[in-house]
Design a protein that fits this description.
The protein is mainly alpha-helical and about 260 residues long. Helices cover about 40% and strands about 5% of the residues. It has helices at about 1-20, 35-40, 45-55, 55-60, 65, 95-100, 125-135, 145, 170-175, 195-210, 220, 235, 245-250, 255; strands at about 110, 150, 260, 260-265. The structure holds heme C (12 copies).
Amino acid sequence: MSSPKRLSKLALLLAGAMLLPLPLTSTPVLANELVVADCVKCHDRPPKDILEAGESHRTEVSCVDCHEGHAPKSGDDIIPSCSKCHEGTDHFELENCLGCHTNPHTPLMITIGKNITEPCLTCHTDQMEQLQQHESKHTQQDCSNCHRATHGMIPDCTQCHSPHEKTMTQVDCLTCHKPHMPLQVTYPDDISSQKCAACHSDVLKMLTNSDAKHKTFSCATCHQKVHKTIPRCQNCHGETPHPATMHEKFPECGQCHGIAHNLNK
Ligand code: HEC
Ligand code: HEC
Ligand code: HEC
Ligand code: HEC
Ligand code: HEC
Ligand code: HEC
Ligand code: HEC
Ligand code: HEC
Ligand code: HEC
Ligand code: HEC
Ligand code: HEC
Ligand code: HEC
């Protein structure tokens, strides 16, 4: 198969060299050779696609950089492999480039198939690190289970989970959870106590029904930043709000004051 091709190339080169006084290193252009302007005479779709969304495949290369020759003259396949021009990174070692870059004439229109994780890691490593360092049931999932169909798509948590309480929205979910380490619940100082009450309604009720000054505080004033943080009373009231001898005798504040949510004053 390859020897006729080589022969015809050689013949072309020789013919070119004889017609035009060019050095053998430059490619001779023959009158009967196809040029880019010819392609559109017989092919509609590729020129149209490239014009609309060819990106670098429009600006940096032309039809004939990729498709060298043409059937039936070039007996061999004139479909280029991507590695002809893209080599040298992990990303370019992947299999099945056209599985994602489905149309080479619109290279950035990317389709993400099912069960894809490894290929994403050729560019994104932080998310995998978070998923692995903070093991959760999200760790076992493929990236494409959440980031589906198109590159960069961000899913709503509520596509797969019901909210803790019906007024909660996606913004709320991300206030407390990070998708790649969902069990590390953290929140800002100004989070509303109503959000906590989705699960701790009894505590909110007790606090607001009490008549101590603590009732004016939000949950996060005391339970700061990381879920399940318990503050010491002394953080705010100093080590010895009462005479030291009294604290020696009764080391727990709660012995007299009950609990923070409902103080005995
Ligand atoms: C005179 C009409 C004509 C022109 C001009 C033309 N083509 Fe084609 N091209 C065809 C036909 C017909 C086929 C189908 C041939 C076949 O299936 O073997 C084809 C097939 C192709 C294929 C598919 C080859 C394959 O292996 O599947 C490519 C790629 C292609 N052309 C590129 C080009 C490019 C690039 C140009 C401009 C440089 C061009 N064509 C100009 C008629 C043309
Ligand atoms: C960056 C490289 C690249 C450029 C530039 C490029 N092509 Fe292609 N083209 C390909 C590849 C790769 C395929 C095979 C796609 C596949 O297998 O699905 C292809 C397929 C084709 C085909 C056959 C399948 C089809 O879609 O009809 C034609 C015809 C074609 N190209 C014409 C052109 C024309 C005309 C141009 C310029 C306007 C062009 N190509 C520019 C890489 C390129
Ligand atoms: C003839 C050379 C050539 C071939 C073959 C080729 N490319 Fe490219 N491609 C380029 C150049 C040049 C650029 C722009 C520089 C860069 O990003 O590397 C580019 C850019 C791209 C881009 C980024 C587009 C942008 O505008 O940012 C993608 C995606 C891409 N190529 C995918 C492919 C895929 C997939 C294939 C195989 C189907 C392929 N290329 C084949 C030359 C080529
Ligand atoms: C799992 C899907 C997937 C596969 C498989 C894949 N790519 Fe990509 N590729 C992407 C995504 C996503 C981007 C990022 C696009 C962006 O930046 O918007 C990208 C970007 C690119 C770029 C431009 C950015 C850069 O790094 O230069 C090129 C070129 C490219 N891919 C070529 C290839 C080649 C060649 C192959 C096969 C060896 C391939 N891709 C396989 C999804 C894929
Ligand atoms: C070739 C490199 C490359 C590959 C492969 C790649 N990405 Fe990206 N990705 C990028 C770049 C670059 C950006 C930033 C683009 C931007 O800012 O618009 C990005 C952005 C994203 C974003 C954020 C979008 C946003 O709105 O903030 C998500 C989500 C994403 N990628 C998921 C994935 C997933 C899932 C995969 C595997 C299926 C993947 N990426 C494969 C390069 C890549
Ligand atoms: C359980 C669903 C889920 C899984 C699995 C998942 N992500 Fe995400 N990812 C999200 C959500 C939701 C966001 C949006 C976060 C935000 O807006 O703050 C996101 C954001 C991103 C971003 C944007 C930047 C950032 O970190 O916020 C990238 C990039 C990304 N994911 C890549 C990946 C990759 C790569 C994988 C696989 C290793 C993966 N994701 C697995 C749900 C998921
Ligand atoms: C594509 C579906 C999907 C999306 C989107 C998704 N999750 Fe999940 N998530 C799951 C599945 C499946 C589980 C495991 C459920 C089970 O086994 O009970 C899970 C488990 C969890 C868990 C418990 C983890 C454990 O190890 O017990 C939390 C917390 C969680 N998700 C929060 C979120 C948040 C917050 C978001 C949005 C940022 C989100 N999820 C987006 C599918 C998803
Ligand atoms: C105020 C903070 C907060 C907000 C807002 C929040 N979560 Fe949670 N979420 C938690 C806490 C705390 C847990 C329990 C963790 C534990 O059991 O240690 C949890 C557990 C989960 C779980 C696993 C247990 C279960 O109930 O199935 C899922 C799934 C989950 N959240 C999804 C969501 C989604 C979806 C949203 C948005 C609609 C959301 N969360 C909003 C704090 C929050
Ligand atoms: C999705 C339900 C959920 C949400 C929302 C939630 N929690 Fe919790 N919280 C729990 C669960 C479950 C426990 C463990 C209860 C147990 O161990 O008996 C817990 C325990 C606690 C504890 C006690 C830890 C300990 O060691 O006893 C504190 C303090 C706490 N949560 C504060 C908060 C605060 C503050 C918020 C709002 C920012 C909040 N929680 C939101 C479910 C939730
Ligand atoms: C985040 C800081 C903080 C924490 C933690 C805290 N307190 Fe307070 N507490 C305050 C502030 C502020 C006041 C109001 C002081 C004022 O207005 O004079 C207060 C008031 C009180 C009062 C007076 C009640 C009233 O209504 O006048 C008592 C008693 C008290 N705290 C006991 C405790 C005990 C016991 C604990 C631990 C179980 C505790 N506090 C934890 C900040 C805190
Ligand atoms: C003034 C500080 C303060 C405020 C405000 C506060 N807590 Fe607490 N909370 C504590 C302290 C201190 C403890 C440890 C038990 C004790 O000493 O009273 C505690 C214990 C808890 C516990 C575990 C024991 C139990 O009672 O179930 C939960 C859950 C809890 N808090 C949730 C909340 C929620 C939800 C809010 C808001 C509605 C809130 N807390 C407001 C200081 C506070
Ligand atoms: C032996 C019982 C007892 C113990 C133990 C105790 N207290 Fe008190 N505390 C009191 C009494 C009684 C008052 C005075 C009530 C009043 O004046 O109305 C008081 C008042 C306070 C006040 C309010 C002071 C003011 O000026 O209004 C604070 C704050 C307080 N205690 C914090 C603490 C803290 C923090 C601890 C633990 C380190 C603690 N107490 C331990 C009995 C106790």
